[in-house]
């Protein structure tokens, strides 16, 4: 005879204790959770030890890897809450479509004086709009505004004549696999600002990296060599701009025999090194051994940074979308 087991499921700050048998089905667990939380099984997302239990192909709780005393976190909305969210989202999308159509019918006219103020107004983000139906829209707007007015971002947009009609956000539940989306080569750029649980916002530096990636899609649609070169160039110029600004100058100087990087990526990595030791995501700066020469350390940092940048770009490409109509 199987011994009963206790599971503790947390949902929105409330803990639910369930007594089940190891041979009870996963479907029974989900039904019990629906009775307690009103969240249907199709909308339940269970996390065990920070990961999703292996429910695929598992018929019983024990086959899914759950044991007595397991603590599980459940995410998910009730059908009623989801209906309200989708209704608000549909209304928002309708308004966004109307505004977009108006913008297309009344294009921005730029004086031909060639003045810097005209150029500044042309190569910019012409509209900022958070998703009003998501939590803390004011905080989202503040983050979008900070991105739009970031001096380094504005610098590369001016230099490369990049303009964006709408800067807005991606809701995590809309396209969970995407961090960024460029619509019609700059008609709109959508960025993932929020965490998957809607309990906060992603790091500014990470969101800005995605924005830089999406700005490159204003010129190049595919993730080909042309795109990679431009994206690398934008990242390098942003780092150079911030370094020279911090030094109190807006130009770079050097000697004729200075080391010339062999690739755009290496140049970007070298700029990161000049700005400070590279930090790995969720990790620490590589440490130097006591007998390491300055040149060996430079080479090691360069190699480590290039590997990090390549990995980041591969992740961004996997979670980037471009759309045309």
TrEMBL record:
Position of the signal peptide = none
Highest taxon of the lineage: Eukaryota
- One Pfam entry for this protein is WLM
Residues folding into a coiled coil are none
Name the InterPro entries for this protein.
Ubiquitin-like_dom, Ubiquitin-like_domsf, WLM_dom
Q: Where is the WLM domain?
A: 116-310
Region (Disordered), start-end ranges: 276-297
Q: What is this protein called?
A: WLM-domain-containing protein
Give the species this sequence originates from: Daedalea quercina L-15889
């Amino acid at each position: 005879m199987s011994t009963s087991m206790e599971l503790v499921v947390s949902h929105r700050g409330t803990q639910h204790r369930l007594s089940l048998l190891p041979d009870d089905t996963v479907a029974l667990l989900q039904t019990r959770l629906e009775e307690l939380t009103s969240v249907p099984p199709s909308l339940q997302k269970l996390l065990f030890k920070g990961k999703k239990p292996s429910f695929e192909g598992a018929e019983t709780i024990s086959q899914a890897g759950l044991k007595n005393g397991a603590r599980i976190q459940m995410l998910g909305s009730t059908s009623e809450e989801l209906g309200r969210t989708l209704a608000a989202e549909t209304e928002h999308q309708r308004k966004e479509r109307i505004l977009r159509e108006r913008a297309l019918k009344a294009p921005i006219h730029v004086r031909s004086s060639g003045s810097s103020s005209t150029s500044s107004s042309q190569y910019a983000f012409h509209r900022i709009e958070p998703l009003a139906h998501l939590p803390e829209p004011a905080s989202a707007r503040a983050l979008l505004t900070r991105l739009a007015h970031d001096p380094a971002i504005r610098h590369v947009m001016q230099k490369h004549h990049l303009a964006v009609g709408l800067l807005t956000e991606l809701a995590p539940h809309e396209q969970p696999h995407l961090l960024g989306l460029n619509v019609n080569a700059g008609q709109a750029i959508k960025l993932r600002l929020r965490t998957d649980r809607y309990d906060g916002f992603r790091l500014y530096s990470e969101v800005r990296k995605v924005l830089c990636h999406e700005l490159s899609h204003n010129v190049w649609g595919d993730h080909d060599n042309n795109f990679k070169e431009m994206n690398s160039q934008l990242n390098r110029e942003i780092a150079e701009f911030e370094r020279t600004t911090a030094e109190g100058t807006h130009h770079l100087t050097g000697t004729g025999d200075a080391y010339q990087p062999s690739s755009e990526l290496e140049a970007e990595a070298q700029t990161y090194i000049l700005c400070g030791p590279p930090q790995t995501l969720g990790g620490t700066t590589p440490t130097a051994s006591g007998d390491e020469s300055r040149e060996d350390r430079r080479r090691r940092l360069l190699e480590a940074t290039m590997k990090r940048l390549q990995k980041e770009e591969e992740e961004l490409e996997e979670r980037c979308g471009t759309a045309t109509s």
